[in-house]
Amino acid sequence: MSRLGSQVLASILVNAIYEMKNYPVVLLNTVLSPISFLVLIFFVSDGALLGEAILGGLIMTMFQSGTFLQADLSHLKNDFKLQEMVVSSPTRPATYVLGMALSEIIYSSPAIVILSVLFALNIHVPALQVAGIIVVLLLMFLASVAVSFAFATISSDIVQSFAFTRLLTTLFSTIAPVYYPIALIPEPYRYLAYLSPTTYAAQIAHHLGGLTPVASGTLAIDWTVLLAFTVLFLWVGVRRSRWREI
């Protein structure tokens, strides 16, 4: 195995496989968070918004996986001084973050699998539209990983990291209309929802899933804004993170 492969595998073993094997109860959180909102929306809408809720669960899971990275990186950095060891080794920051990010995907795999099965059973669209939805989910994950890395490198305590994680998750994947169409939000408050990148991701996903069609012009704006948010978060992750202690 190459050095890159072994470094990535080490991150996955430390941050995902170890916890999944030794503390399987922690997996309940990754499953219950998106599924609980899905069930709530299902009953409130009498099943009418099941498709939107499934896509919302996938968006929330991917974004939440990225935000969980912040707490894990901060824990390893502050409690085990792992970042100091990585800094003094040949491992590059991008390799370290790649391995940790993949570990979060593996950690969230039970929720992803369940939601993917529900998607296959309830949403029937051509493969090209499914590919578009996957791109949206990957952009959400990439954006959340980038901003989480920046927060993790400046966080001085795991408690502070948990606060950042909860704040990001609440603002971007709970309050934002990812489980239901934005049209259900009263007009005066709708503009606040557009401050969140997950709103644009949800509109694209709902459209591609054949659930809530939007005009081609609006769809183009949604893609542009989502890409702009992703680039912005990547810039924050690269430029504002503090890899080496000063």
Report strand %: under 5%
- Structural shape: globular
User: What helical percentage do the residues reach?
Assistant: over 70%
Give a quick account of the main beta sheet: strands, pairing sense, barrel closure: none
Number of domains: 1
Structural class: mainly alpha
Number of strands: 0
TL;DR?
By secondary structure, the chain is mainly alpha-helical. The chain is 78% helix and 0% strand.
Describe this structure in words.
This protein is mainly α and about 250 residues long. It has one domain (about 5-240). It is about 80% helix and about 0% strand. The chain has eleven helices and no strands. The protein has helices at about 5-20, 25-45, 50-80, 80-85, 95-105, 110-120, 125-155, 160-175, 185-195, 195-210, 215-240. Helix 2 runs parallel beside helix 6 (about 110-120), helix 3 packs parallel to helix 7 and helix 7 (about 125-155) packs antiparallel against helix 10. The longest helix is centred in the N-terminal third of the chain and has 30 residues, at about 50-80. The chain is globular, with a radius of gyration of 18 Å. The model has no long low-confidence stretch (mean pLDDT about 85).
Outline the secondary-structure elements:
Blueprint: H1 3-22, H2 27-44, H3 50-79, H4 82-87, H5 93-107, H6 109-122, H7 127-154, H8 158-174, H9 187-193, H10 197-208, H11 216-239
